[in-house]
Write a sequence for this structure.
């Protein structure tokens, strides 16, 4: 298991003004919150971090700010996805030079991609020297990784892990076994889609790629630690307690919920990049009420 | 019916080098071929024109080259889609300033978009003064336009038409009636997905947004003219003759087929932007054989 992709990897939003210029002060405040909670890693510029909507220059600046603020106290994993292969290669080099420990590479698509195209894309990016985690998120990339392709990619030098969505509780163990079969350790297999992750960790997942952990790391870390300690009952109890947060994510999507939550906490005074709109006032009030009810403010 | 969105609108590829710099000479040669055939419009920087993979500067340069080469002999419709609203607004202004007659706006997404978000996105872009055609292409944008949203958008000043995919022959008349009901004339309704379009035109569609027409305009224009003249039998006969081309599009996708075809014709010496790969040699040979068999070289 790679040390880079383990434990709680928290995905913060990337506060930016309407023109896409990053608010360094707000970003530092959010990162400080994560470091203080002792997350294992920070997933900067993930989907919730709106990487797809930011310029190359602003993405580089975000990595520089994060590397400075985090200062080695957590692993720094950075989204390096782009539509063009040459741009993804350049973003990986930028991230490496700016202090990232690894890159998270989604096969972003416009023209739907074929398996051989995704393979060549990953091969080109991974050749740059920054360890790469496969970012499997069909809801945004519209590409579905089949196990055979993950197996091929896992044998590329520099491709060190997979971030994939969990599954229904009764399917997750079989799913995890499928991934593990095509990609043996030390290749890391970890889970996203927060509401599915606890069972993924229990099945053997090594990392939780967490949207909610990007603002509320403490209860997420508690679940990770409970699973590590073999206390499955406690992990499941804590996960059940967080169900109101998972409901928000399923109902209103991660990026919209996390901006509303960050506003409620007073950490940002900004909205997601247009065309994404902030939650309506009733939906934002629902987010605030859940945060208060769970004592997370 | 707007004069902008009618007849055969041909969508050329945008030849560019591996770094994304447009080959002006090759682009002019392709455009000349279309103007000589007397297409009604040119759909520059459509999906087949790989707009999503080109920088703002190169997109502007392509419009300048096209406006100069076409010189008013066909309407110039330009793809102005972008993930960010402010970028789409800027691209529309660039296209207008560089000589475009209209903009083709796809709701490009990463985070899946809500109807109100797409509405606000179109409202912002259409306010810039360039007439806008709604570009409905769920296969690339992953957004599905419902008739109610098209109706709302059609009432925005500056939103002048819809480019949508055709349907199975027995469904196309009902589908066309649905669109027409929410968006009365003079709003233009036209069809893409070449192999479905002839029936769409017969049902009342006013424009054919054609991938194959981007290199082979003559047989496509013949179908448009036959439908206009009321000769449905001749239109269907010509369409049936082109079935081998439609099979190629369905089997290998438009952008990959059109690059192989343009190479076979000796018009370009380039491949699509990576990560999209050129067709394999056997598939490219299949494209060349169809072109020869139909006497289109």
């Amino acid at each position: 298991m790679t040390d880079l992709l383990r434990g709680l990897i928290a995905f913060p939003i990337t506060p930016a003004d309407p023109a896409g210029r990053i608010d360094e002060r707000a970003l530092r405040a959010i990162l400080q919150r994560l470091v203080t909670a002792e997350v294992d890693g920070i997933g900067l510029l993930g989907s919730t971090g709106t990487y797809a909507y930011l310029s190359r220059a602003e993405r580089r600046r975000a990595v520089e700010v994060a590397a400075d603020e985090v200062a080695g106290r957590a692993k720094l994993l950075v989204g390096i996805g782009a539509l063009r292969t040459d741009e993804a290669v350049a973003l990986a080099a930028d991230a490496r030079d700016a202090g990232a420990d690894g890159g998270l590479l989604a096969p972003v698509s416009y023209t739907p991609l074929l398996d051989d195209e995704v393979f060549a894309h990953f091969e080109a990016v991974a050749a740059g020297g920054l360890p790469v985690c496969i970012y499997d998120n069909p809801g945004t990339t519209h590409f579905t990784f089949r196990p055979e392709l993950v197996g091929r990619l896992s044998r590329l030098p520099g491709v060190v892990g997979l971030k994939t969505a969990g599954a229904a509780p009764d399917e997750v163990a079989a799913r995890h076994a499928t991934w593990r079969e095509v990609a043996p350790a030390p290749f890391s297999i970890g889970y996203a889609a927060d509401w599915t992750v606890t069972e993924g960790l229990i099945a053997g997942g090594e990392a939780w790629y967490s949207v909610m952990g990007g603002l509320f790391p403490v209860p997420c870390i508690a679940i990770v630690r409970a699973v590590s300690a073999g206390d499955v009952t406690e992990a499941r109890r804590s996960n059940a307690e967080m169900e109101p947060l998972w409901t928000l994510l399923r109902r209103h999507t991660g990026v919209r919920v996390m901006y509303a939550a960050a506003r409620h906490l007073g950490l940002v005074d900004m909205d997601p990049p247009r065309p994404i709109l902030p939650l309506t006032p009733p939906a934002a009030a629902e987010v605030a009420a859940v945060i208060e009810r769970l004592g997370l403010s």
Remarks:
- The mean pLDDT of chain B is 97.
